[in-house]
Design goal:
about 550 residues; mainly beta; lipopolysaccharide transport protein A fold; 36-stranded antiparallel sheet; 36 strands; about 60% strand; rod-shaped; OstA-like_N; membrane; Lipopolysaccharide export system protein LptA
């Protein structure tokens, strides 16, 4: 191999591998320096030999003749040569004493030191550069760690580097590697494979275009389209490294890990068969529940069924054609491996979007087993023209549609009546809000400290007045976001205020705060748009007074 080609190859690998660590880069660079030195030695072939190849006694026949002033020896049967500590065996040899060149045929074998043996059918050995070119049906280089086989082996005995330009096969204790061509450094035990590379282990199979394998450390460095298949799934990557002993892998480019139940994808990724850690546009897909977690950073632990994402974190739970989106600072997913259901947890700055309801809170828990969504710490939800607030809220889905909400402690339900441009309100200790199939509010059940303010509308759609009622328990039925019927259990206290006598203070229960401008959109929940900060309290109060001033009683009557 010419040195220009070697340096071009090194530069290309560094360019394509990009973020190889400094220590790793130095190792690889050192390896290419070895190749460069060997190529110089092969190309120059010094004219002045430092040591002549020695023919050892014991052969059956020796014929010496001169050809153009050069001494040529023909040696037959039991042939042995020695050169700089290595022994060469063959059946027939042509030895050019002047040029230190040997042509060997039949049962050719080179023994170098205590560990390396090279065998084949035909050998050209250049004694001045110690380059051995072995060929035949099977040319084999064997050391204490591995066995390399090809049709042709070019072995630099001085540098300890073997190259095969034809398809070759390397076998060690754990692995079988094949490629169209490759290089083996017998001193560092580093293999470099090119074109149609395949590494087969009892635990996995790896295919790639370029692979550097260290048989001592068991680390494989690959570049190009790569696939790793094992019992835990399939890895698809373009650049990275893989430990053939521990199954630990580190990938520097867009990579996916996939098995029968999930897919983990990221711009960079580390994985050991059970645990995965990814950075950059992370996606964790649960195939069974069709749930997708995305974020900047992701963690997956298969044995626990645990996932975590943070940084622009969003979970998408896809059921039929409607998708539930949850956004939070950090999202967790726990899989129940007994029934394959899961629990999703969002922590801090939670926003939720679904076609039939939206909301925000500090933390959330979604159980797929019973289709419940639990909202904690100052939750507020919107459904159609309804707003619900409480210390905690539980939302129950049926057939992926909002069916019921349970509001606990400091519960407040506001329903906007677009006809009179006012708000029906109900508050109490606990509220059950029930919805119809179109996710419109159909019934409100209040239990404890009930208060209501609702507008009575006649059959002619004119305003009758404002009902202000207090009662321990209430049952309100709605139609098109208007109170259709109401039942009070206990001793209700209240009054009907005619339209002309309704004051601004009477229109609202204590704690009323219509916050529809805070209702998140799908784009906001999926981080495509910024979520606007909450309005200052002073501004909210001013907005309320402005709205009240606009709606005089004379304007309400139809």
């Amino acid at each position: 191999m010419k040195h220009e080609k070697i340096f071009a190859l090194a530069g290309n690998l560094f360019k394509r591998w990009g973020i190889i660590k400094v220590k790793e880069a130095m190792k690889v660079l050192t390896f290419f320096v070895f190749l460069f030195a060997s190529s110089i030695a092969w190309a120059q072939r010094p004219a002045a030999p430092t040591e002549k190849v020695e023919l050892l006694p014991g052969s059956d026949s020796l014929v010496i003749f001169n050809e153009n002033g050069l001494e040529i020896r023909r040696v037959v049967n039991n042939v042995r040569f020695r050169h700089q500590g290595s022994i060469l065996y063959c059946d027939l040899a042509i030895h050019n004493v002047s040029t230190n060149l040997i042509e060997a045929y039949g049962n050719v074998k080179i023994v170098q030191g205590d560990t390396i043996t090279v065998t084949g059918d035909t050998l050209f050995y250049y004694g001045n550069t110690r380059l051995a070119i072995m060929s035949g049906r099977r040319a084999v280089l064997k050391d204490s760690k591995s066995t390399l086989t090809s049709r042709r082996l070019e072995y630099d005995m001085a540098g300890g580097i073997a190259r095969y330009p034809f398809p070759g096969r390397t076998v060690d204790k754990e692995n079988v590697l094949t490629s169209k061509e490759g290089i083996y450094d017998t001193r560092t035990k580093i293999f470099t494979y090119y074109r149609d590379v395949k590494l087969v282990n009892q635990k996995y199979t790896l295919t790639t275009d370029t692979l550097v394998y260290n048989s001592l450390t068991k680390w494989s460095y690959f570049n190009g389209a790569t696939k790793i298949v094992n019992k835990d799934g399939t890895i698809v990557a373009k650049r990275g490294r893989y430990n053939t002993e521990t199954s630990e892998s580190i990938f520097d480019n867009r990579t996916s890990v996939e098995n029968e139940s999930y897919t983990l994808t990221g711009d960079s990724l580390s994985y050991d068969g059970q645990r995965g850690f990814a950075r950059g546009d992370v996606e964790i897909l649960d195939k069974k529940d069709n749930t997708l977690l995305t974020g900047d950073v992701g963690l997956y632990r298969k044995e626990e069924g645990f996932s975590k994402v943070y940084g622009h974190a969003v979970v998408r739970s896809i059921v039929t054609e409607d998708t539930l989106f949850i956004r939070a600072d950090t999202l967790y997913r726990f899989e129940n491996q007994l029934d394959s259901t899961q629990r999703l947890i969002g922590n801090k700055n939670v926003y939720i979007f679904k076609s039939d309801f939206q909301g925000k809170c500090d933390s959330i828990v979604y159980n797929t087993q019973d289709s419940t969504v639990l909202f904690f710490r100052n939750p507020i939800l919107w459904s159609d023209n309804n707003q619900m607030q409480a210390d905690t809220i539980s939302a129950f889905l049926v057939n992926n549609k909002l069916n019921r909400m349970l509001l606990r402690s400091n519960s407040f339900v506001i329903s906007e009546d677009t006809l009179v441009r006012q708000h029906n309100q109900v508050k109490g200790r606990t509220i059950n809000a029930l919805f119809d199939t179109t996710s419109s509010l159909r019934q409100v059940l209040v239990d404890g400290n009930g208060q209501s303010a609702y507008y009575a509308i006649g059959d002619d759609l004119n305003l009758i007045g404002l009902n202000r009622v207090e009662c321990a328990k209430m049952n309100l039925q709605f139609l098109q976001n208007r109170v259709k019927r109401i039942a009070f259990i206990g001793r209700p206290e209240g009054k009907l205020i005619p339209p002309q006598f309704i004051t601004s203070a009477q229109r609202q229960l204590e704690g009323f705060n219509w916050r529809v401008t805070e209702k998140p959109t799908r784009a906001q929940v999926t981080w495509q748009e910024e979520v606007p900060p909450p309005e200052p309290k002073e501004k909210k109060e001013a907005s309320k007074e402005t709205a009240k001033a606009r709606l005089a009683p004379s304007q309400i009557i139809r």
